[in-house]
Backbone:
């Protein structure tokens, strides 16, 4: 049985797998170092990775859905992502 997965969906899946691997690796490093300051530093780096993953997966999803989703919904989604990123910076 052959299962067809869209390229955009496969891209999102791969990025999320990489993101999850980064999170697990960060948790293991925190355990290894057993130091609150280093754990805080590692966690701060993860705070930078999250928005990048969000933007990448949203962008891939929008490209994959182009033509299927009305333009107004696409703009609303982009505005929502930008507001999330803006709120993280403040």
Residues:
């Amino acid at each position: 049985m052959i299962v067809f997965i869209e390229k955009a969906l496969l891209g999102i899946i791969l990025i999320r797998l990489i993101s999850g691997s980064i999170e697990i690796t960060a948790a293991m490093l925190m355990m290894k170092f057993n130091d609150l300051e280093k754990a805080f530093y590692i966690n701060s780096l993860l705070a930078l990775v999250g928005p990048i993953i969000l933007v990448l997966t949203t962008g891939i999803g929008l490209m994959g859905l182009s033509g299927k989703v009305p333009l107004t919904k696409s703009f609303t989604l982009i505005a929502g992502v930008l507001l999330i990123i803006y709120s993280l910076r403040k």
